[in-house]
Amino acid sequence: MSQKGAIQSMAVKTALAARALLTIGCLCLLWMATGIAVAQTPVQTASVASARMMPEPARIGAARLGDHGDKTRFVLELTREAPFTILPDASGVAVEMEAALDAALPPAKGLVKSVSVRPGAKAGHLRLILATTGPARVQLAEIIPPRDGMPPRFVMDLAAGKAGPGAVLTPASASMMSPPVPKEKPKPPLPMIVIDPGHGGQDPGAVAVSGAYEKDITLAMAKEVRRQLLATGRYRVALTRDKDVFIPLRDRPALARAKGADLFISLHADSITGRQVRGLSIYTLSEKASDREAEMLAQRENQSDAIVGMDLSVQSADIANILIGMSQRDTMNQSRRFASLVLKNLDPNVAVLPGPLRSAGFAVLTAPDVPAILVEMGYLSHSQDAKLLGSETHRRRMAGSLLRAVDSYFGVGR
Ligand SMILES: [Zn+2]
């Protein structure tokens, strides 16, 4: 039997076994210990649906990598749950899946130095190859069913180091693999939320009618949001600044990426002269502003770097470039979804601007792979908003609203 034949034969066996698994509703990894020494090929497989039952192939609408420090997560958003097999590859690890690719492949991140695609062993299958920076093992590979408006997702966690029991081996060590030891599925890392208090240092931001600075209001709010998020035990939280220092706009999304952020929330408070406007509004990134007011606001917020003499001309080019990427489209969808959830979960005591969901070219929202929103919490030029934004009760309400939105985004909590 040729090696290819062996692979296909294995695939049939594993598909049958996987179908048996499906009947007990288990999406856990399935071990094919017998196949490993023989073929050194499909070491693990899991399947959630039979192709016969679903003639339309699944489509991959988005593909992304996340660096979570001790592991690198590979995520595929699918139009429906699809069978897959994890295979060792000379360059790292491969995912064979019965699916078609509609998304751009993500750039290098964490342990993965490149992702490429080629046709799979069978018609209608594709093989995604994740070349790794060194020996890597698969800690987890599973299909997450659709929930909370999220499509079904394939999730695979890669960790550095030689494989042991319960992990996929790199080809070099595959022949040494021992039978699996049943063990608990490793816990995925807690989602990382990066909170960005607007302005700071030489850049005070807007000045309230009360004399308070936007930079102090945003910092106090960010700390309260951090406190509430951490208190749940469900998240990791980082602040772009936790004291009164100046941070250039472009460093803020960069910090979010470095932290492996799953969400980025920039906090601001606006000010406008000559008009009695009040209420909260939420912004996502777009090249073309949703309206004139959003465009003007983005211009005001993007001025931050000019205050310390930094060049602003690169910003608009950056925004345009980032928007070209297809992976960004997925990030933008997620950003918009999160923005809607913030609005939906908002405390009824928080005043809202008419048409509160808007978009414009905010420099601070340009991490291409981190869903991001900017919240203008109210108008410091309005006496009532200014008073509320300085009050602890209001801060708690506002932070509580954001916590509910984050919970809702990740499909946890209440
Ligand atoms: Zn601001």
Principal-axis shape: elongated
Strand order of the largest sheet: 1-2-5-6-9-8
Order of helices and strands: HEHEEEEEEEEEEEHEHEEHHHHEEHH
Largest sheet report: 6 strands, antiparallel
Provide a count of the helices.
10
Mean pLDDT comes to: 79
Q: What is the SS-derived class?
A: alpha/beta
CATH class of the largest domain: Alpha Beta
Q: How many DSSP-defined strands?
A: 17
CATH superfamily of the largest domain: Zn-dependent exopeptidases
Instruction: Please indicate the count of domains.
Output: 2
Q: What CATH architecture of the largest domain would you give?
A: 3-Layer(aba) Sandwich
| Proportion of residues in helical segments | 25-40%
Which SSEs are present, and which pair or pack?
Blueprint: H1 3-23, E1 30-31, H2 33-39, E2 44-46, E3 58-67, E4 72-78, E5 84-89, E6 92-97, E7 99-101, E8 112-119, E9 126-132, E10 136-144, E11 153-160, E12 192-197, H3 214-232, E13 236-239, H4 251-258, E14 263-270, E15 280-285, H5 292-302, H6 304-307, H7 313-324, H8 326-344, E16 352-360, E17 372-379, H9 383-389, H10 392-410
Parallel strand pairs: 3-7, 12-13, 12-14, 14-17, 15-16
Antiparallel strand pairs: 1-2, 2-5, 3-4, 4-11, 5-6, 6-9, 8-9, 10-11, 15-17
Helix pairs in contact: 3-10, 8-10
Zinc ion (ZN) binds at residues 198-199, 205, 214, 268, 301.
Describe this structure in words.
- With 414 residues, this protein is of the alpha/beta class.
- Helices cover 31% and strands 27% of the residues.
- The chain has ten helices and 17 strands.
- The strands form three sheets. A six-stranded antiparallel β-sheet has the order 1-2-5-6-9-8, covered by helices on one side.
- Strand 12 (192-197), helix 3 (214-232) and strand 13 form a beta-alpha-beta unit.
- Helix 3 crosses helix 10 and helix 8 crosses helix 10 (392-410).
- The longest helix is centred in the N-terminal third of the chain and has 21 residues, at 3-23.
- The radius of gyration is 24 Å and the shape is elongated.
- The model is unreliable at 1-54 and 164-180 (pLDDT under 50).
- Bound molecules: zinc ion (ZN).
- Zinc ion (ZN) is lined by residues 198-199, 205, 214, 268, 301.
- Zinc ion binds at residues 198-199, 205, 214, 268, 301.
